[in-house]
Amino acid sequence: ARSFQVLNSSANFVSLRFSSDHDLKRTDGLLLESGIIVRNVSSPSLERTLRVSVGSTSQNKRLLSVLKESL
Hints:
71 residues, alpha+beta, four-stranded antiparallel sheet, 2 helices, 4 strands, 38% helix, 24% strand
């Protein structure tokens, strides 16, 4: 099972920090296959982190659905 942590944000995006590089890459691929484009913003201070822009209600529901399926 993949695991990630949602980081606090006061911007129009959410950052997801994954427990492993494997989980990050696999989830990034699953989201892309589902037509959801995210940005890998991993750096020394943000290890294993994807950034997801906040979208419409239907887009956000779709994102949550794909993330739930991937867990």
